[in-house]
Design brief:
- The protein contains eight helices and five strands; from the N terminus they run ααααααβββββαα.
- It has 207 residues and is α+β, with helices and mostly antiparallel strands.
- It has a single domain, classed as Tgt2/MlaC (Nuclear Transport Factor 2, Chain: A).
- α2 runs antiparallel to α3.
- 15% of the residues are buried.
Length: 207
């Protein structure tokens, strides 16, 4: 019994230590680390349709999943409609939205790997934080600067992003407006079908 209690105590101490280490990393540090790893993966060259390509895609998805809180994003985007959903419906919705965002995010990054990301002001309040960044992209010898603010919260083992605001346009508010309009005019089921159709469309186009 003493041995079992000692083992349990050691596990709890190790878990607490790992949690403290994760939260010791600031929101800005989380973003820097994740973006660096994703860019390193995107820079790799692999042959289409090979196991190496699938492995690479899985690795990119894993990195995206470590810093994007899809459940919180989905909950905020559905707003009052979230409460009306069953647990199974919520899981299904999060899964579909996650696939759509992952593909869109990866496609945007792949389209221009030559961007420069500058990190600006970070602010924290309790379990939430925001980090303001500026993305500079050069096209046709002209530099375009885009301000992107990451809304973050403490979740799981550290800081995770639940909303991205680009030039004052929030992805959560944007989704909420679209989702609410479709649900009001048609139904929740119609929204899910449209999302599945969009996912199928991106799959067929190689997205």
């Amino acid at each position: 019994m003493k041995t079992r209690m000692l083992a349990t105590t050691i596990l709890l101490v190790l878990f607490a230590a790992s949690q403290a280490q994760a939260y010791a990393e600031s929101p800005t540090q989380v973003l820097k680390r994740t973006h660096r790893r994703i860019n390193q993966l995107l820079a790799r060259t692999v042959k289409a349709g090979t196991p190496a390509e699938k492995t690479l895609k899985d690795q990119i998805k894993k990195q995206i999943n470590t810093f994007l809180d899809f459940t919180e994003l989905a909950r905020r985007a559905l707003a009052r409609h979230w409460e009306a959903r069953t647990e199974a419906e919520r899981k299904e919705f999060v899964s579909i939205l996650q696939d759509l965002i992952e593909r869109s995010y990866t496609k945007q990054l792949r389209s221009n790997l030559a961007y420069k990301l500058e990190y600006g002001k970070e602010s924290q309040e309790g379990d939430t934080a925001s980090v303001v960044t500026t993305v500079k992209v050069v096209k046709n010898k002209r530099t375009t600067a885009i301000v992107i603010e990451y809304k973050m919260r403490k979740a799981g083992g550290g800081w995770m992003v639940y909303d991205v605001v680009t030039d004052d346009v929030s992805i959560v508010r944007n989704y909420r407006s679209q989702f609410n309009r479709i649900i009001r005019r048609e139904s929740y089921e119609a929204l899910v079908k449209k999302m599945r159709d969009k996912l199928q469309e991106t799959s067929q186009s190689g997205g």
